Amino acid sequence: MNRLLLAAYPKSYRSRQGEELLACLAEAYPGRSWPPPREVAALACAGVQARARAVVDDAARPWWLDGIHLAALALAALALVPYLQDVWHWALHIDPGQQAIAFHFSGWYPWAGGPTRIRLLPYGLLPLGCLIALLRGRAWIALPAAAAMIWAGATTHGRTLFGSEGKAGLSYYGLGAPLTARDLVLSGTLCAACAVLALCRPSRLRRHSYRRLAPVVLAMFMAGSLHIISVSPAFQRGLFVLEVTALLGAWVATAATGDHRWLIPVAAVAIVRTQAIVVQPDAFMQSLPDLVVFLLLIAPLPALAITAQRRQGQALPE
């Protein structure tokens, strides 16, 4: 089990010091397959710091380009969240019946029995395709997918293609207000980020392995198998924990390197979600008071900026 902890470290670190780290753990905690929780947290933190330093040391691309790439990935994942169950059911031709995601017409397809109106594709294929293309550094593929998201949210045409999914009904409301595909700030910001990335040379974008999609597939399996919709309390609590973990990871990486690239995705997600709360596109659900929501969204931004400045200030005397 100790080998699982090595996954937090970059490949170069694992090849050089992986066996030494395992030997130290075996000597420090004989007979235990897993170190104490405090040690696990420390090792995970050190792994994030090592990965962050490896990213910063890679001079193949400027920090701002990497930051925009991370922001586009975060926004594509945020747009995909409400449709995990929907895409899973469509891919496996599962008829969810009354347990479909809570949209009009219950998300029926031509091969499923149900209401009279049908649709051919789930809207979630657009952010999913955008996410996969961005992972592989193919911004020229992600750009038309993001533009199609704008079209689907801005028009009332093509109901047979996507039905009413992504245009009306429940969606991801996050910490405060609903965030549906009709809110064009999300899809517009994602499209703008993809456009900037597409204008750059493809070789300058970081390419991630398809293994990074494993958490997405797992989330789809869980949502589809258990029929968990994005507005269920269990889903929201799990997503909140994931977001807090991501923020802590950004803070650890910033504190270790003093680099500002992780501030860009945090700012992009905060702007999109703050706008949804201010505009209040659908006030039927509020999980926390507005003031608390604003603090949770905005507070990480100056915290990350101050952390980066302090780290840079410490690096100068060294």
UniProtKB/TrEMBL annotation:
<feature type="transmembrane region" description="Helical">
    <location>
        <begin position="118"/>
        <end position="135"/>
    </location>
</feature>
<feature type="transmembrane region" description="Helical">
    <location>
        <begin position="63"/>
        <end position="84"/>
    </location>
</feature>
<feature type="transmembrane region" description="Helical">
    <location>
        <begin position="291"/>
        <end position="308"/>
    </location>
</feature>
<keyword id="KW-1133">Transmembrane helix</keyword>
<feature type="transmembrane region" description="Helical">
    <location>
        <begin position="179"/>
        <end position="200"/>
    </location>
</feature>
<keyword id="KW-0812">Transmembrane</keyword>
<feature type="transmembrane region" description="Helical">
    <location>
        <begin position="212"/>
        <end position="229"/>
    </location>
</feature>
<feature type="transmembrane region" description="Helical">
    <location>
        <begin position="140"/>
        <end position="159"/>
    </location>
</feature>
<keyword id="KW-0472">Membrane</keyword>
<protein>
    <submittedName>
        <fullName>Uncharacterized protein</fullName>
    </submittedName>
</protein>
